[in-house]
């Protein structure tokens, strides 16, 4: 149903290779937390202060390795994630951001976000964040119900979150996101709606509302197994079943309805914002902007090359120490762009370098762009690939429109409400043979 023949391949490739993107989003990974949550499969975990010290020393060396090699780029957004970045000494965060500013060209008034878990910040930490230029806080609340929080393995209470939220407000943070999670063990539609209304009463600028996914290798996976079947012998979850698919769907539909009634626009499948407060960093992922990941296991996409840093902590620290040898200093001094540094990588910090084919890029254009409420631009597809979107995906587009899953409005293509509900099935139609 999709068409990409050899006749126009070289013409498309030549056009793409001539294009240069100036924006480069930065993601900085802090892999430490006080306790790993039972549902979490991120690259994170507890660590003592000495390990943390060594990690941040290595991270700063990785950042400095790009000095002088990123002249083609400017940075509009910085996102500090984890793990729990707020669980470490705030001065590490400040030093990292100072180093980033010394190495990269930062746009005026960049969006600088940090993930914060309730109970891990105080007035001193938040003031350090503010002085370091952080202007967006993302609170990982997940639920306003303390019983649900305990079942998730969270170590904070809703009351601690409220205290931290008001503290951040009082200290002048005017762009705050709150993460919430539905389809939790023992959660009902009523308890989910109560969480939504409690959060709405706080009037945050942004709300991310995700449905729980049982990830392999987590304690939750051991309890629930395949198809969300928990083990009866597990006393912790014994009487707390997961909501079924129908209940999960009702939660999703009510989320959309309640948040939109309160002035939050859904701009991506799981993200809602007041006007002017969409997360610029996340939007850049969905619109194909290049990004560079710094830190343990951090993923990147630079000049159509995808890769990630090594994922073993001690190996990462040892590898970063190689950046300060005379040989490495000389090599990076003569590099003219970040892409050259990535391809040379003689210290071995990067893994799984994958040069994206034109097919890969076209697929990602559709997968990521159609997650957004605004959808995609047909003209921008042509600008990116020098070929009409209908030449490549015409049959799929016509089929999805006919089945009321996709809407065509002038230059725009976007998922219908029904298309959003079954987005995974819809987006899979854009795989190129």
UniProtKB/TrEMBL annotation:
GO MF: 4 iron, 4 sulfur cluster binding; coproporphyrinogen oxidase activity; metal ion binding
InterPro entries per UniProt: Aldolase_TIM, Coproporphyrinogen-III_oxidase, Elp3/MiaA/NifB-like_rSAM, HemN_C, HemW-like, rSAM, rSAM_sf
Organism superkingdom: Bacteria
Domain Radical SAM core: 18-265
GO CC, alphabetical: cytoplasm
Alphabetic keyword roster: 4Fe-4S, Chaperone, Cytoplasm, Heme, Iron, Iron-sulfur, Metal-binding, S-adenosyl-L-methionine
Subcellular locations according to the entry: Cytoplasm
GO biological process terms held by the UniProt record: porphyrin-containing compound biosynthetic process
Entries under SMART domains matching the protein: Elp3
Record has Cytoplasm as a keyword: yes
Matches recorded under NCBIfam families: hemN_rel (TIGR00539)
Function description: Probably acts as a heme chaperone, transferring heme to an unknown acceptor. Binds one molecule of heme per monomer, possibly covalently. Binds 1 [4Fe-4S] cluster. The cluster is coordinated with 3 cysteines and an exchangeable S-adenosyl-L-methionine.
Family: Belongs to the anaerobic coproporphyrinogen-III oxidase family. HemW subfamily.
Record's protein name: Heme chaperone HemW
């Amino acid at each position: 149903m999709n068409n990409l023949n050899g006749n126009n391949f070289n013409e498309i490739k030549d056009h793409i290779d001539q294009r240069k993107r100036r924006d480069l989003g930065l993601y900085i990974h802090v892999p430490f937390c006080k306790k790993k949550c039972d549902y979490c499969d991120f690259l994170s975990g507890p660590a003592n202060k000495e390990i943390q010290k060594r990690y941040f020393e290595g991270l700063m060396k990785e950042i400095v390795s790009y000095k002088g090699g990123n002249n083609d780029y400017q940075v509009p957004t910085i996102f500090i994630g984890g793990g729990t970045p707020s669980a470490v000494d705030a001065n590490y965060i400040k030093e990292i951001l100072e180093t980033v500013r010394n190495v990269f060209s930062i746009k005026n008034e960049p969006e600088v976000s940090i993930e914060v878990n309730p109970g891990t910040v105080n007035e001193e930490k938040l003031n350090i964040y503010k002085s370091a230029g952080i202007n967006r806080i993302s609170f990982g609340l997940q639920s306003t119900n303390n019983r649900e929080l305990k079942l998730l393995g969270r170590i904070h209470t809703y009351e601690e979150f409220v205290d931290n939220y008001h503290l951040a407000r009082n200290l002048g943070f005017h762009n705050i996101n709150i993460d919430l999670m539905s389809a939790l063990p023992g959660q009902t539609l009523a308890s989910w709606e109560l969480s939504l209304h409690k959060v709405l009463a706080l009037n945050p600028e942004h709300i991310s509302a995700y449905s729980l996914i049982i990830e392999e290798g987590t304690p939750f996976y051991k309890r629930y197994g395949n198809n969300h079947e928990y083990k009866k012998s597990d006393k912790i979850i014994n009487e707390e079943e997961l909501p079924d698919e129908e209940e999960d769907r009702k939660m999703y539909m009510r989320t959309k309805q309640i948040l939109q009634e309160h002035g939050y626009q859904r701009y991506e499948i799981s993200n809602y914002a007041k006007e002017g407060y969409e997360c610029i960093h996340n939007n850049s992922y969905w619109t194909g902007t290049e990004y560079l990941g710094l830190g343990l296991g951090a993923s990147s996409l630079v000049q159509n090359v995808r890769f990630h840093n090594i994922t073993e902590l001690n190996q990462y620290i040892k590898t970063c120490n190689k950046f300060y040898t005379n040989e490495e200093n000389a090599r990076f001094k003569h590099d003219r762009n970040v892409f050259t540094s990535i391809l040379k990588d003689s210290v071995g910090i990067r893994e799984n370098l994958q040069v994206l084919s034109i097919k890969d890029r076209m697929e990602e254009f559709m997968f990521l762009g159609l997650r957004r409420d605004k959808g995609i631009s047909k003209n921008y597809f042509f600008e990116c690939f020098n070929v009409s979107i209908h030449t490549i995906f015409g049959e799929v587009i016509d089929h999805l429109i006919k089945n009321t899953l996709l809407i065509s409005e002038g230059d725009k293509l976007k998922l219908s409400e029904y298309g959003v509900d079954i987005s995974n099935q819809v987006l899979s139609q854009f795989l190129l043979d």
